[in-house]
């Protein structure tokens, strides 16, 4: 039980990390603007949830269709954590060491999109200038921002989904 509880999600997590990395490299080579599209981010979430569910199902089968809430969530969480950690590492290397120009382009486009949204909700011009200056002074792909993005953008929302899935997949063995 303990062996499959860690081995299966680790395997699925490594696979997820490779898939997410391939998607990121594909987007990098084809069109950097894909990184800024909402559907691109949603597709990454979908891949994470699919891998997490597959890990849960495989673990449940390996344990004779019984998996506690805790073990269900652990299986899902290890899969997702491993996958998005690999993805984050690959994008960090890609945009900090392989191609700084790409990171500068994404930073500029991201800032422009943020300012556009702020303008549309009626933000004052002085606040816009302050926000632009603050965003321009930051490295979008620094290790601190990469970890922050990993936690806030991926781990927390995907963990909430994982809690719901763990509740749906849990099945305790009958008591005698």
Automatic annotation (TrEMBL):
It comes from the Bacteria. Coiled coil: none annotated. Pfam families: DUF4199 (PF13858). Keywords: Membrane, Transmembrane, Transmembrane helix. The chain crosses the membrane at residues 12-29, 35-56, 76-95, 146-169. This is DUF4199 domain-containing protein. It comes from Gaetbulibacter aestuarii.
């Amino acid at each position: 039980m303990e062996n499959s509880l860690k081995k299966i999600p680790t395997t699925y997590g490594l696979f997820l990390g490779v898939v997410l990395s391939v998607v990121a490299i594909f987007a990098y080579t084809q069109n950097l603007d894909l990184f800024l599209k909402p559907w691109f981010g949603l597709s990454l979430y979908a891949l994470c949830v699919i891998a997490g569910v597959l890990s849960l199902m495989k673990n449940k089968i390996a344990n004779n269709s019984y998996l506690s809430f805790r073990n269900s969530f652990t299986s899902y969480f290890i899969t997702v954590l491993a996958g998005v950690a690999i993805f984050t590492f690959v994008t960090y290397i890609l945009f900090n060491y392989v191609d700084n120009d790409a990171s500068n382009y994404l930073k500029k486009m991201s800032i422009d999109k943020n300012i556009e949204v702020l303008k549309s909700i009626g933000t004052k011009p002085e606040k816009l200038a302050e926000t632009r200056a603050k965003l321009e002074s930051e490295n979008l792909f620094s290790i601190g921002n990469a970890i922050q993005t990993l936690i806030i953008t991926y781990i927390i929302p995907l963990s909430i989904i994982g809690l719901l899935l763990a509740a749906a997949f849990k099945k305790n063995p009958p008591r005698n």
